[in-house]
Amino acid sequence: MKKSFFKFMLSFAVTAFVVSCSGDDNGSGGSSCSDGIQNGDETGVDCGGSCTPCADAVVELSGEVTEDTDLDASKEYKLTAAYIVKAGASLTIPAGTVIKASGGTAAFIGVERGAQIFINGTAGNPVVMTSDAAEPAPGDWGGLVIAGDAPTNKGVDVTTEVGDLTYGGATADDDSGSITYLRVEYTGATFSNDKEFNGVSLFGVGSGTTFEHVQSYNGGDDGIEFFGGTVSGNYLVSIGSGDDSIDFADGWTGNGSYWYIAGGAKAGIEGSNNGDNGDATPVTTTTLSNITVVGPVTEGALFFKEGGGNFTIDNFYASDIDLGVRVTAGDAPAGVRIEAGDLAITNIQFADAAETFSATNYEGANQSFYTEGIATGAGNGANSPDWAAGWTIGLENSETISENLAGVVTGDVSLSASIEYLLTGSFIVKEGGSLTIPAGTVIKASGGTAAFIGIERGAQIFINGTAEAPVVMTSSSETPAPGDWGGLVIAGDAPTNKGVDVTTEVGDLTYGGATADDDSGSITYLRVEYTGATFSNDKEFNGVSLFGVGSATTFEYVQSYNGGDDGIEFFGGTVSGNYLVSIGSGDDSIDFADGWTGNGSNWYIAGGAKAGIEGSNNGDNGDATPVTTTTLSNITVVGPVTEGALFFKEGGGNFTITNFYTSGVDLGVRVTDTDTAAAARIENGDLDINPIQFAAPAMGFLATDYTGLNLSFYTEGDNTGAGNGAAQPDWATGWTTGF
User: Which residues does UniProt assign to the signal peptide (predicted)?
Assistant: First the structure.
């Protein structure tokens, strides 16, 4: 059986515990309850028996632990000096134990190399090491220092920076015990500017040690620091550190996941190799995942320092910072490692960025060491993660206002309507991934041709807007204009007459295959604004571009507003488009080509610069197959237009159009006189419009400029077009703009 051993002082002074009893001294053997003497039926001094209750004595912790020792959660512990667990001994601290410390640098808990500590807290009952001051402050006491026998690049049998413990050896799986659900508060007592305690310091601690669910709160120096060793740290929280929040160095080769960091004075994470020799071995090597850093910070969300090391980091969420990754300009070993690809950060997301924000201050050639993406960080972005509930303090569920969108999505990702998203570069949903955008989400874009959202073939997008709360993708400019950003580009596996495995005109996505019912997701109640960024006269983004998108995809209630090129364009594929609006396009309003075989109904078009609808087969070969074939119904085109309400172009195709309403146009159906493939189809009866109405025609109006024999391809008649003639249709109420 373990024995409890302490070098402690039990204080039984009357000044510490005074219990009043009504009983008087009844003579010999009686209890006075107030005479400072244990007498009568008392079980303690003036307490117990008829003087109950007895108060537990305060237990002072100091000195050395030389045998296996258990603390007792029911007792009150005071740490007033160094309390060292010696080699061969162990210290066990049960759930709910509270240790209150005083004494500055003199007061700390140390675990020697070869000793063990078992901190057995729970989420409901963490172990707490805190300050004994009436008004606690950072630096009130030292902290927890653990020394192990695992390798470091500082050498073997070296001395800890604080606590004078020996550490470092060759036992990678060294076991210093188990630490779970521990909170340390107001640590970081200072010897000098270069010598301070951290909340928890792990020197050469081995991988046989468990270190999970640990928080440092309001420490005077670093929150948690790994000095070499191989131990991993998971579910760590550092709040309010006076220096770096979590720090690792000296050849640490452990890993880490689920770190939540906020309010640190300097770097969120400082990762280095060796302060004396950036090339020292073993090199700091780690894989980190699910990291949140909430600023402001003064030295970056990550400071890659003193040679850095080999870091692989994924799902990194940084909020309210001005610098993502810091690298000192004169740190040659760190620069060499970045150029060699030894620092790789994927899915880093910058939220609520400061006005002076920069992703990195590194100026070397390799600027691709980080890839932006959607990140959840430690679980809830900038908000407190669920796993931190109950045992931590000082975390705020502050609402994130804005987040950057850039990089790639490789899994299933959902945005939040409560966050304003800033699109500053390409944002690609990769094959096998999905992006879900809920009703009411707003995405603001800047960056011209660099900024677009792309959905790869084999990926999916789900835009779940409503009439009352559409999803809006727009410009972030204070004075928005057409062409401020790219647009939405979707690639599918359905057939086109451009071939198989071809490349999208913009976005460099691969599309086209044999899957007619390919499913790229569902898009409902989406409005895109100020799209159409231009590469050249022949290469421009549209509002929404659908390349080889399949019939299993839903595409309904979509508007393009003030786009620089076409509003909405179908490049082959089989997807249908219903309840579409295009207003103010800089080229054609709605365009389809390349063997599109979908259908469309309820299209409202106004204010386009060129054709209301441009329908073609193939710009290189008007007879290419599959031939563009569609049935359109309930169409309104409001002019003026410069290339007709319908431009039947480049072979046209097989079009059946009913209930076609035009207003204010000077030309109904345009056909280029040199387009022999288009003319052949008209003569064959492949273009059939019945009825079409020409309301309020412009001066010089022509129903068609086609000069062939078959002029009966259209039949005039009154109709309602998209619902209300030239007026806004009822189905467009609430979610559209520009009428």
Answer: 1-16
